[in-house]
Design a protein that fits this description.
Chain lengths: ~300, ~300
């Protein structure tokens, strides 16, 4: 087998990236979900977003979610913040780490956050100053292409990442926002930015897991995943959401790559997530169970 | 990038493996589907099964389907046959190639075909004699494990394959009948049987595409796939069917591996398949379109 890393770090994004597009889930249920994910062994959980509750009703109550979480669970709770005001609220509420999105696509940035890439980078700089040493991850969206411009050269994406680091980001995540990544594109990006990055994949075109496998082979050891595959667009029939946490852990377990996460407990968390959003989640491992599950005698 | 083969052969199995578990589709519609798949450039299509119409109503009318097909399409039409009687009917009806399933799992064989592996191999021998030189593929099912025994050692699977070859099979396919394959298991099997095989994957646990990618890296150049991901159990919510033809071709196109198949035409065939079975098929590429599809201006 191609040489693979011995261990991998997973940042769970279901409670934020996953739930943001769903009908709002009550604060106590969001606390339950985050707690179940921490209990499964996930060391980093994007738990909340400090965004306008009018714009994203499902993310309302972020401070209340953070207040409800056990701070001795061993998990770091991350807050997504779109701007300085969001960062202030997140830090006041005790967020231990922040995540800020910068798009590699000018058009996507313009349409989705009404900002140029320059303006987003300036915002990131202010947020990093405010964070005063707390970790700030910059997530570069559309890192494998955009539905507006099509392919975006890996060198252009790398430049956005480098400028985010200059602005003070302590780590970089490259996100396949609309499911355009393939193993070839992953290889091109890693060749440009190195393997000391986190990757964030979607199953929009069913390539999330194969991209993660290709990235592992290239030495990448940090991934974003979402419990139950929550995320993406629940309204595109047949299309998946984010790469499912239990799908990646199921693969890693079989490959002998340590993640520190319990698959059995993840499956319990996936069942909880499914009950909270009241729809069948696009997670084959959650539906079928792990490969070790035998037929009843 | 790991060195990959320059070209790959795909055997389309949707009209048989895919449709067999669906409500019956009328013969003229099955002919239309097979024809659309041949028009997309698929060189080998498992079009029918000569099985008991009482046991598998969706496969009734196999001779009529074969009679309706254009024999100058460039595609070879394969018939699945469970026994000598089926092979006689298939050859009378003009099947150009046969496929016979032998299980690597004693218990699966016993429960699903009521035969021992020995009895299946004896049947295969008779079928090969009857075929008189026409290609007979042996598909070894449960090649990556069985829900009854769990893992099956690659050496045991290899022995079943070797005995199928001795019995006269002209090619071997190893099938992940219940979605237990992983890249590690693929590597173990290829180490035992070599890369001159065909592999057949399911998306039961979302690993079909990553397994195909791992197999490509190991030099395997022949795959079974199913249009729209038809197959598997349509009644397990969230669980996929067979590896989707358009999902594999979408990946191969981006990797620069030639399949001779047109993705655009496959997507038309997938839309036809979906309309015939009257349910949303588990095919992300069919739902989302290829990565090159941009947002409307």
């Amino acid at each position: 087998m191609t040489s693979l890393p011995s261990c991998v770090r997973i940042r769970e994004v279901g409670p934020r990236d996953g739930l943001q597009g769903e009908s709002p889930v009550a604060v106590p249920d969001r606390v339950r979900l985050v707690s179940a994910l921490a209990a499964a062994g996930l060391g980093e959980i994007e738990a909340v977003a400090f965004v306008s509750p009018r714009a994203v009703p499902a993310m309302a109550g972020a401070a209340e979610v953070l207040a409800g979480l056990d701070r001795d669970s061993g998990a770091v709770y991350v807050a997504l913040v779109p701007n300085v005001r969001g960062a202030e609220l997140a830090l006041e509420a005790g967020a231990e780490a922040l995540n800020v999105t910068i798009s590699a696509s000018r058009e996507y940035s313009h349409r989705n956050v009404g900002q140029s890439i320059e303006e987003s980078l300036a915002g990131l700089r202010s947020i990093c100053a405010l964070a005063a040493g707390r970790p700030v991850d910059a997530t570069v969206s559309c890192a494998f292409g955009s539905p507006y411009e099509g392919d975006i050269e890996a060198g252009v994406v790398a430049t956005v990442g480098a400028r985010a680091s200059e602005a003070g980001a302590t780590s970089l995540t490259f996100a396949d926002t609309t499911g355009m990544a393939t193993p070839r594109r992953v290889e091109e990006l890693v060749a440009s930015v190195g393997s000391e990055i986190r990757l964030h994949f979607h199953e929009t075109r069913g390539t999330g897991l194969v991209n993660a496998y290709a990235a592992l082979q290239l030495g990448v050891t940090a991934f974003d995943t979402s419990i139950g595959g929550l995320g993406g667009s629940p309204f595109v029939a047949g299309a998946g959401g984010n790469l499912a946490t239990e799908g990646l852990v199921h693969l890693l377990d079989d490959l002998g790559v340590t993640s520190g996460v319990s698959l059995e407990r993840l499956l319990e968390a996936a069942a909880l997530a499914q009950s909270l959003v009241k729809r069948v989640l696009p997670s084959p491992v959650a539906a079928a169970g792990p490969r070790s599950r035998l037929a009843p005698a």
